[in-house]
Sequence to fold (114 residues):
Amino acid sequence: MEYSLVGNRIRQIRELKNIKQSYLAIQLEISTRAYSKIESGESHLTVSRLYRIAQVLNVDVADVVSARPINTEFISGSRYQESIVHQLNTISQELSWIRKRLECDQDSEAEGST
Fold:
């Protein structure tokens, strides 16, 4: 694996997503300097670290190691945003269901104690 090419690719994706190195370092539980070495190709990446970087960047590992051009429409464009909006809507629906369930449980308890 050509570490400098992979590091450069990670940097490009990170910048397209407007993510700071410090954020990725925190997510990876490493120092910002150690993370910087990943992007510069000075540090050897393990498969698990590469996988975790892809997770944090919300891309496939193949997007990180591929030589093909970065699909900027997906990474920084509307498809990525639509994906996030869909995930947030799903979470919101689940929270509404939980809230209603809790209210029903509380009503049942109140009726049972009277």
